[in-house]
Amino acid sequence: MFVSIVSVQFGAAIAKDIIEIAGAVGTVFYRVAFAAVILCALARPAVRGRSRDDWVTIAAFGVMLAGMNVCYYAALEHLPIGVTVTLEFTGPLAVAVLGSRRRVDAFWALLAAVGLVLLSPISGVDLDVVGVVLAVTAGAFWAGYILMSSQVGERLAGLDGLALALVVSAAVTVVPAVLTARSNLLDPKVIGIGLVVAILASAIPYACELEALRTLTPSSFGMLMSLEPAFAALAGALVLGERLGAPELLAILFVLVANAGAVVTRRPKADVELASVAP
Fold first, then answer.
1. What are phi and psi of 231, to 5 degrees?
2. What is the pTM of this model?
3. Torsion angle of alpha carbons 22, 24, 26, 31, nearest 10°?
């Protein structure tokens, strides 16, 4: 799980280097396209013999994945990576607590809300409004992705559903990528870093998480996933030289604790596998 988290966040930090050249959609296209090729080669998913409902589920899953990544990378154009991931994590947190009426879950939601307040102008933090909206929207897509992943898991075995969903994501983003990035989409630097990002942010995390889930409970998995905002801030500092002030760091801490607490105290029968595939 630690390898997965570090790989995802440093992959995202590296991706920020080409967003200025290819744009958010162009960056996402290369990530999902290369990841689709890698996973289809590994999983060899069957295309024939699937029902109409199977394809509707796969298509919806792919759209959620594309929307999550496009909004996330677009947010990185306006916000530091640590802040972006913190705001985005409201999606998984919502999945964890909205289905419960227990007081302890209301407490975790309140704790996360305190963290978000620390990222608001009230605490003197000046964040780009467009970036905030994009990051929260990415979180909403992430919540939808988590809910859709259980349906895909029921219908398709192994990595088949994810591999085919990535193909859908590539198909959905290819035209917008060409229209926005134009000739920059063929820049060797963009293609090279796009491949690196696909490996770091998709191929390695998927493989590690799949192996981790063989021995970890969903609660333990979700708790470890809650470390992502902290590692995002670390990746931003080391790779991009982004420095966060005390309010931002405290906000990340609040959201991290809220996510971990929501997972640890969740009832077993209500356990939701917070499948990452974080942007």
1. -70, -30
2. 0.82
3. 120
